[in-house]
Amino acid sequence: MAKALSEKIREAMLHAEDWEKRKTPIPGVFVVKVPDKVLRIKLEFNTPDSEGNPTKRRGMYFDDARTLEAAKLAFANPKLKELLEAVESINKTKPGIDEPEEEKIEF
């Protein structure tokens, strides 16, 4: 079955444009043609909208089982939620509005 699926993907992506995405039966997972001299394919996880289209310009790319397993371990780590909350807090802050002037950090 994997061989038949490989051929189906190869045929579908052979004449695709570089970075062209195609939907899969798995919501949020897309097949992407990567620029190369030979046919090169990656899977992309990208949060889908209500019609199954990607909502971000770029998602998380992977093309081997090792990367998938590492992502599964990272996503299962309870510290990830805390880290994400910290990032969300930073991203919601608007300099000059939410921060007092004296607390701004200059880079």
Q: Descriptors for this entry?
A:
four-stranded antiparallel β-sheet, 4 strands, 107 residues, alpha+beta
- Helix fraction bin: 25-40%
Shape: globular
Number of domains: 1
Number of strands: 4
Number of helices: 3
Describe this structure in words.
Strands 1-2-3-4 form a 4-stranded antiparallel sheet. The N and C termini lie far apart (54 Å). It contains 3 helices and 4 strands, in the order αββββαα. With 107 residues, the chain is an alpha+beta fold. The chain is 36% helix and 17% strand. It is globular. It has one domain (2-103).
Summarize the structure in short:
The protein is α+β, with helices and mostly antiparallel strands. It is 36% helix and 17% strand. The chain contains three helices and four strands.
Give the helix/strand layout.
Blueprint: H1 2-13, E1 21-23, E2 29-34, E3 40-45, E4 60-62, H2 65-76, H3 79-92
